[in-house]
Amino acid sequence: MSVATQRSGGGGGGYVERAPGGGSSSLADVVALILDKGLVIDVFVRVSLVGIEILTIDARIVVASVDTYLRFAEATNRLDLYEKGGKDLPELVQGITEGGTKGKTSGVLEAAAEKVNDMLASSREQRGEEVRRRPARQRPRENEE
Amino acid sequence: MNPIEAEKPTYIYGLIRADAVIPDGLIGLGPSGRVSTISHGRVAAIVSDVPIDRPLGVRGDLVAHETVLDTVAARDAVVPMRFPAVVEEHAVVDELLAPNEDHFASLLESLEGRAQFTLTGRYEQDAILREVLLGDDEIRVLREKVRELPEDASYYDRARLGELVVRALEQRREAEGAGIIDRLESFAVATVSNQLAAPDDVVNAAFLVERERQEEFENAVEGVGEELAGRVRLRLLGPVAPYDFTPEE
Predict the structure, then answer these.
(1) In three state form, how does the secondary structure of chain A look?
(2) Residue B100: which domain range?
C-alpha cells in the first residue's frame, strides 16, 4: 500500500498530489481540461470564420472493453490477498525479480494508462490524414450552478 | 487595411476585460509565437497568428491554448474559447466583440476573482482490489479458478473476472465520488461533476473557487485526501482558467 505524498505547490500535509495549470501537466490533463470546453466561435462569428483543418481528437476512452476487463483480471490475479502470508514459490520468485519497489498490480494499470496517452498522442500527432473541418459540438453541460 | 491583411486568419484563445494586461512571455501557437490582444469597449480578445500549412491539433497547439489561458487566468478573469477558434482578423471586433460586448462583459464579471480547480481521484489498486475480493465470493472463487488454469485456457474466465471487478469498482465509486464532492462543494461558488474515464477513477470534478477562499478550499481537499489516504489518491489541478464554467455561447 503506498501513499502519494508529492506536493509541488503550496504548503500543507501532502496527502494530495498538486499540479499547477499552465501546460506543465500531462497531455492527458490538457486534453481532458480544454477539449469541448469554452465559448464556441461558430455561434458568434458566421461570416468570417476561417475553416481551418483540425486533427481529430477523440479523448473518450472506451472503458467497457474486453481489454479493460483482462487488465483488471490480471491485476486481481496478481494481488497478494492477505498481504503478508500465503505467497507461493512462483510469486516469491517473481517478486524478487521485479525488485519489489511497488505493488505488482500497479505496473499493469499504469502501463495501461501510458498506452492511452500514447494512443491520444498518436491520433493527434501522427495521423495527419485524419482531418475534418470543424470540431463537433458535444458534451452537454452538467450540474452547472 | 489592405486586402491581404483583411484575410489574415487569427487565433482566439479567450476574452478578458479591456483594461486587463496580459503577462509578458506568453507563447502562441502561430509561427511568430507572439500573443497580443484586440480590444473593443470593455472587452478584449487574446489572439495570435495561426499556422496555415498544417492542420491544428498537435500536442503543442493544445498546450499553447491551455498555457496562454491559465497564465492569464492566474491574474485576471478570462473566458476561454473552445479549441480551436480561428477567424479573419477584422471579425474579432466586427463579429465577435462589438455585437456581444455586454454579454462578454457580464460573463467576465461573473468570473472576476474566481479560478477553477479540477479534482481527480483514483483508487489505490491493491487496497481496493483486496477489498473487492474479500467482499465478493463470486469474484474470489473465479480468481482461484483462473489462477489454476493455464493462460490460454482461462481467457473467458479472465474476461469475466475482470468484468466483475470493473462492475464492483463502478458500484463503489458512485457513492464515494459523490461523497467527496459533497465535502468540498460548500467551499466553491459552483461545482461540475465530469464523466469518469477509467474504472478505478473515483472522482473528477471542477470547482469554481473565490481566490479569497482558495487556501480554505485547498486545506479542505487536503483534509479529504488525508482521510482517504491508502484507499483513494487525490490529485488537484489548478488554479486554471474556468473551462468547466464557461457556457457554449
Answers:
(1) CCCCCCCCCCCCCCCCEEECCCCCCCHHHHHHHHCCCCECHHHHCCCCECCCCEECCCCCCCCCCHHHHHHHHHHHHHCCCCCCCCCCHHHHHHHHHCCCCCCHHHHHHHHHHHHHHHHHHHHHHCCCCCEECCCCCCCCCCCCC
(2) 3-112
